[in-house]
């Protein structure tokens, strides 16, 4: 097994994240990128805007990432042996495009309680400061949930443009990853990312999140897949893995899951953004 070392676990506990962790080969990332771009070309509705949520349900290669043993070994080191997959998101930044992610905490709006879960950010392409890699407010997970202003601002890849203000930049570190590497971060870690100022696409595949079986969805309904172990508490409906590229039944399931996800993301909001 490829469990985290004691030093890596300490890094996660101290900083709120751990990286880089090698999980995919170069060939695997190339093939995943090709499959993503095939879907974009042939069936753009399935991977644009809200289509970027839960793309693992219609893409066999993204499904394989979600259930990758190296990733699950690392996740198990943090949340234990019973691991459920709650959802995924593709964060794609095209070159010189006005796309960014404001500083935020995942736990503020995703409705998963208690916080016995972790988010995996897998680099399908290189992620660096020039193309808009993640930026982490180191140690911010140790505080309570912070106030988020809902800005609904143009270019913000978050549903509400939810933003934590007054970030101490001296405590922020860029999270640079090579294609095939991943990071794991805590539900309450404050993080964001800037613009892609390079000439290449930046593609990140985010498993948001891997949850322990004792975690409930308190803002709506989530279906899950069993990634490892068993669903001891049975709080969620179990759904099947992808049965093939763009299978019609899988497309229908993805649409239903994204409809439920929209209700969670906009719970309590008077305004609906560009989901």
Question: What do you see in this structure?
Answer:
The model has no long low-confidence stretch (mean pLDDT 94). It is built from 5 helices and 16 strands. It is α+β, with helices and mostly antiparallel strands. Strands 1, 2, 3, 6, 11, 13, 15 and 16 form an 8-stranded mixed sheet that branches. Strands 4-12-7-10 form a 4-stranded antiparallel sheet, with no helix packed on it. A two-stranded antiparallel sheet has the order 5-14. The protein has one domain: Sandwich (Jelly Rolls), CATH 2.60.120.620.
The tally of structural domains comes to: 1
CATH architecture: Sandwich
Tell me, what's the shape? globular
Structural class: alpha+beta
Number of helices: 5
Q: What does the largest sheet look like?
A: 8 strands, mixed
Task: Give me the count of strands.
Answer: 16
């Amino acid at each position: 097994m490829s469990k985290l070392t004691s030093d890596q676990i300490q890094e996660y506990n101290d900083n709120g994240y751990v990286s880089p962790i090698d999980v995919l080969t170069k060939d695997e990332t190339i093939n995943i990128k090709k499959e993503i771009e095939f879907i974009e070309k042939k069936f753009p509705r399935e991977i644009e805007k809200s289509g970027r949520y839960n793309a693992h349900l219609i893409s066999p290669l993204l499904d394989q990432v979600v259930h990758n043993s190296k990733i699950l070994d690392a996740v198990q080191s943090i949340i234990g042996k019973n691991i459920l997959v709650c959802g995924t998101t593709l964060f794609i930044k095209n070159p010189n495009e006005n796309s960014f992610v404001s500083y935020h905490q995942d736990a503020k709006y995703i409705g998963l309680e208690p916080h016995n879960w972790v988010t995996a950010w897998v680099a399908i392409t290189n992620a660096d400061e020039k193309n808009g890699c993640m930026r982490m407010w180191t140690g911010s997970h140790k505080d309570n949930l912070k106030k988020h202003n809902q800005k609904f601002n143009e270019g913000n890849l978050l549903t509400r443009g939810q933003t934590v203000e007054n970030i101490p930049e001296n405590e922020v570190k860029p999270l640079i990853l090579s294609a095939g590497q991943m990071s794991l971060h805590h539900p309450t870690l404050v993080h964001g990312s800037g613009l892609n100022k390079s000439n290449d696409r930046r593609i990140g595949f985010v498993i948001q999140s891997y949850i322990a079986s004792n975690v409930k969805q308190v803002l709506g309904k989530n279906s899950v897949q069993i990634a490892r172990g068993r669903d001891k508490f049975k709080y969620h409906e179990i759904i099947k893995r992808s049965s093939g590229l763009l299978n019609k039944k899988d497309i229908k399931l993805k649409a239903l899951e994204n409809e439920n996800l929209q209700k969670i993301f906009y719970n309590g909001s008077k305004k609906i953004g560009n989901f």
